[in-house]
């Protein structure tokens, strides 16, 4: 094959490739560059092929995320992204209060020694954050580490989607206000102590205690988030 492969020939190879790989509906296919290499054609030809397949409804493309098999998933089939995108601070905190204590309880059963070391390091680091951006980064990393320590990849992935709302400017402005009003040093120190209480419970393999510690931590944040202006 050469980079001058006709589009029609590249299309045949693409259809064969997709069939051989046995991709299911909504499965992500390789990126354009990889497809061009596999097919032995130019990226321009690959783009033409993908555009045609998209017109036929065999694939769909999501800007910034890649190309997927089948027609675009309906809003009913993939509601989580849409709901998360419109979540308010109260929505987020209410969801976290339901979800994260259970993750902490699971982590008390399944966390590895590496998980525990990482959690303790992050818990301590949140207490020395220099500004709200650094605190947000460390706090986000801590809570995601708890989710991973649950030993359930699906639960951890769902939490990652839930936590993505923290990257929105509205949430960042709200947390910036909380950080300022609570006085950053005192706030960081208090939250770090709560993080350490969670880690201690997980390390002690006490699920109920871990559940309670996480709930208390999130309830404190929820109160601040909903009363801050």
TrEMBL record:
Question: What is the name attached to this protein's record?
Answer: FadR family transcriptional regulator
Is DNA-binding given among the entry's keywords?
yes
Q: Which InterPro entries match?
A: GntR_C, TF_FadR/GntR_C, Tscrpt_reg_HTH_GntR, WH-like_DNA-bd_sf, WH_DNA-bd_sf
One GO MF annotation is: DNA-binding transcription factor activity
| This protein's UniProt keywords | DNA-binding, Transcription, Transcription regulation
Which Pfam families does the entry mention?
FCD (PF07729), GntR (PF00392)
SUPFAM superfamilies for this protein: GntR ligand-binding domain-like, Winged helix' DNA-binding domain
Highest taxon of source: Bacteria
> Which intervals hold domain HTH gntR-type?
4-72
Which organism encodes this protein? Brucella tritici
């Amino acid at each position: 094959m050469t980079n001058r492969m006709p589009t029609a020939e590249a299309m045949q190879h693409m259809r064969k490739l997709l069939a051989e790989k046995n991709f299911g509906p909504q499965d992500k296919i390789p990126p354009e560059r990889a497809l061009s290499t596999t097919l032995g054609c130019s990226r321009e030809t690959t783009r033409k092929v993908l555009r045609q397949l998209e017109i036929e409804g065999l694939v769909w493309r999501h800007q910034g995320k890649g190309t997927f098999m089948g027609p675009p998933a309906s809003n009913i089939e993939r509601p989580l992204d849409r709901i998360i995108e419109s979540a308010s601070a109260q929505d987020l905190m209410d969801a976290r209060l339901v979800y994260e204590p259970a993750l902490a309880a699971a982590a008390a059963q399944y966390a590895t020694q590496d998980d525990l070391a990482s959690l303790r390091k992050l818990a301590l680091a949140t207490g020395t954050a220099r500004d709200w951006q650094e605190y947000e980064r460390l706090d986000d990393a801590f809570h995601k580490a708890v989710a991973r320590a649950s030993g359930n990849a699906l639960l951890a992935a769902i939490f990652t989607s839930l936590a993505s709302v923290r990257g929105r400017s509205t949430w960042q402005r709200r947390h910036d206000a909380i950080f300022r009003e609570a006085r950053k040093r005192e706030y960081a120190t208090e939250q770090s102590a709560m993080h350490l209480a969670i880690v201690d419970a997980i390390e002690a393999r006490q699920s109920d205690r871990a559940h309670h510690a996480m709930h208390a931590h999130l309830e404190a944040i929820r109160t601040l988030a909903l009363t801050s202006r």
